[in-house]
Design goal:
It is a single chain. The chain has a single domain, classed as Sandwich (Immunoglobulin-like), CATH 2.60.40. Helix content is about 0%, strand content about 50%. Strands 1, 2, 3, 4, 5, 6, 7, 8 and 9 form a nine-stranded mixed sheet that branches. The N and C termini lie far apart (about 45 Å). The relative contact order is 0.26.
Length: about 140
């Protein structure tokens, strides 16, 4: 079992109109863990899903890398909560591994507005990284 430093966190890459916020990258045993969401700019060649989130059905795509290597066969989940009002946190969406560090899953965002998203990455039951994003969800 690979033991990963407990303070490991994700590099946050801000998307111009969709995500905001930055965090200091932490080092794992092999490099820096990077979690890219499909709305991040400059990664169209690696991620296939549309950049804009909309109220209703969405397909979410995430790319996970540790340094220059992709992170495969991890447990990746996406959780969401509305930033305004009293909408409760929605159930976690498991993202299925498709190879080369890419994970995808489908879920429903019930309403337009500002939503907090958290992507969590676990290996062998231990969280090795996470990323929090503030996303603007458009009407259908």
């Amino acid at each position: 079992m690979r033991v990963v430093n407990s303070v490991l966190c994700a590099v946050i890459v801000a998307a111009a109109a969709v995500a905001s916020g930055h965090a200091q990258p932490q080092r794992s045993a092999t490099g820096t863990l990077t979690i890219l969401f499909h709305s991040d700019p400059g990664h169209a060649e690696e991620l296939k899903e549309p950049a804009l989130l909309k109220a209703g059905d969405n397909t979410f795509e995430v790319l996970v890398k540790d340094g220059d290597k992709t992170v495969d066969n991890a447990d990746v989940t996406l959780t969401m909560h509305r930033l305004q009002g009293v909408t409760p946190r929605l159930p976690a969406i498991p993202l299925k591994h498709y190879g080369d560090g890419v994970y995808r899953g489908k879920g429903v965002i019930p309403t337009a507005g500002s939503w907090g998203l958290k992507i969590s990455v676990k290996k062998n039951g231990v969280e090795i990284g996470s990323r929090e994003i503030t996303a603007t969800v458009n009407a259908k």
